[in-house]
Design goal:
Blueprint: E1 5-12, H1 20-32, E2 33-38, H2 54-67, E3 72-74, H3 78-87, H4 93-99, H5 103-115, H6 117-128, E4 133-138, E5 141-146, H7 152-157
Parallel strand pairs: 1-2, 2-3
Antiparallel strand pairs: 4-5
Length: 174
């Protein structure tokens, strides 16, 4: 294992139920970078365009963020918002997952909810409590991190704005 440079980082996103990016994190990046930012959208689509295996990947990433606290950081994306809304029973979730290759994602979630309601609840709570924007400083330079775009004004007002605060694509009161 090489020397990890303090505060060095890599940002990756949009695995969409494809396993090799997660394997790269576990086998290489964890030994190379101080921080690994995963910028969302782990589930849905995949090789079969139905999202097979995405929930297991998301659960594994959740475990990694807990094992490597403050080293592996997950920032949810729009597919995570669809997923969270589906998990919370909001009508916004199902049609968006269906349109975006998430049929098996919903089936996997439903199976998890039946077989292990506690794990389902923990996944929903973890996902809902994740901030949608982060900052990171490296080599004296600030980096602004989000899945699609960083809203500096929103970040300045609410740096810990979480996915659960963003239902239906609109902000809910804090």
């Amino acid at each position: 294992m090489g020397r990890i440079v303090p505060n060095s980082f890599v940002a990756v996103s949009d695995f969409h139920a494809t396993k090799w990016p997660l394997d790269k994190i576990k086998n290489f990046y964890i030994n190379e970078y101080d921080k690994i930012f995963i910028l969302g959208d782990i589930t849905d689509r995949g090789k079969d365009n139905k999202g097979t295996g995405g929930i297991d990947m998301l659960l594994e990433i959740k475990e990694l963020t807990q094992k490597y606290k403050n080293r592996i950081i997950y920032i949810p994306g729009n597919h995570d918002q669809f997923l969270y809304c589906y998990m919370m029973g909001h009508e916004f979730g199902e049609p968006n997952l269906s349109r975006n290759g998430g049929i098996n994602t919903m089936n996997e979630l439903d199976r998890l909810k039946r077989k292990n309601p506690q794990k389902y609840k923990e996944l929903a709570e973890w996902l809902g409590n994740l901030p949608i924007q982060r900052t990171h400083e490296f080599d004296g330079k600030p980096y602004l991190l989000a899945h699609a775009f960083f809203n500096k004004e929103m970040y300045n007002k609410r740096p810990n704005l979480c996915l659960k605060d963003c239902i239906y694509g609109r902000l809910t009161p804090s």
